[in-house]
Amino acid sequence: LNRLRTNVEELACVQDATQQNTNSIKTSIDWIEQDINNIRFNFRPLLIDEHLIVRRSQDLLPFPPSNQAIELTDSSYAVLAGNKQHVLVHREPTLCLLDRQLTIIKETPWPLDDISDICWSSVLNRFIVINSQYVFILDERTMVLEQCLTSDTVKWIRVTCSDTKIYLSTQGLGSSIFEYTLMPSIVLLKEWKSPVTCTHNEWIEDLKFHNDFLGLVISRCANNAACFELRSSTTLNCLWSIQLDD
Question: What is the pTM of this model?
Answer without folding.
Answer: 0.72
